[in-house]
Amino acid sequence: MSFVTRFAPSPTGYLHLGHALSALTAFDAAREAGGRFILRIEDIDQGRARPEFEAAIFEDLAWLGLEWEKPVRRQSEHMADYEAALRQLSERNLVYRCFRTRKEIADAIASAPHEAQEAFRGEALPPSEEDEKLAAGEPFAWRLSLKKARAALGPAYFALVFEDETGLVRAEPERHGDVILARKDFPTSYHLASVWDDALQGVTHVIRGEDLRDAAHLHVLLQKLLGLPQPVYRHHRLVLGEDGKRLAKRDQAATLRVLREAGKTPDDVRAMLANAPSP
Ligand code: GLU
């Protein structure tokens, strides 16, 4: 069986120990399986992504001893792909326009997929009301309709399962509600782009942190609706900083570049990860 996995960081800050654990876990798994390791740059959030962070990702990962296939896929260069995927869903009436406040929509689309979104349920407005809002130029988001997805898939919706390190899990897309897949002026969200690219790049094993465990419940539904193959999921533990708090991009002390400048070696990083506390 082939084994293809990936590390998919967003260049919105410097990589820290948590990212190192994700990258090393995926890279080591690929090595062990005699498989392939892909690095993908998830920079759809062009308001926050910065070229210097992308350059730092390459530098930090190379220093850690990782090797990846070239060229690296940069999501911002493939927006048309995600737009086409969204169109597939909208042509089948599986998404609807949701006109909520600009701020709610902007918050929900941010490429940081770790924050739980409100499990929203809704439906399309009556056509006359929708036309009025469109004519007035009101912003909107495209939401996946779980109701329509259920109707489209029938019994297959309830039979959706995926494999992770705990065994076979029944998918519960309801955890996410009607998730935002795109917005008026922005053709994709993390969920849609990530699922699309995993399939396009032939990823067989998605390896990422515990904090994204819930995402699989939605991703397998998107795969089913879009006719994409389903990968196996593996979630690794999260690591906390020395202060016992979750690492965030703003925690400079735990960034790989600060550790490197302080004279740490890649082996030191592996040792720190092995000893780091978990939540
Ligand atoms: N770009 C996402 C992140 O920053 C990747 C999540 C994933 O691996 O699917 O965490």
From TrEMBL:
GO terms for biological process: glutamyl-tRNA aminoacylation. Keywords: Aminoacyl-tRNA synthetase, ATP-binding, Ligase, Metal-binding, Nucleotide-binding, Protein biosynthesis, Zinc. InterPro entries: aa-tRNA-synth_I_CS, Glu/Gln-tRNA-synth, Glu/Gln-tRNA-synth_Ib_cat-dom, GluQ/Sye, Rossmann-like_a/b/a_fold. The keyword Aminoacyl-tRNA synthetase applies. One of its GO terms (molecular function) is ATP binding. Its EC number is 6.1.1.17. One of its GO terms (cellular component) is cytosol. Pfam families: tRNA-synt_1c (PF00749). It is an enzyme of class 6 (ligase). Residues 4-266 form the Glutamyl/glutaminyl-tRNA synthetase class Ib catalytic domain. Belongs to the class-I aminoacyl-tRNA synthetase family. This is Glutamate--tRNA ligase. It comes from Terricaulis silvestris.
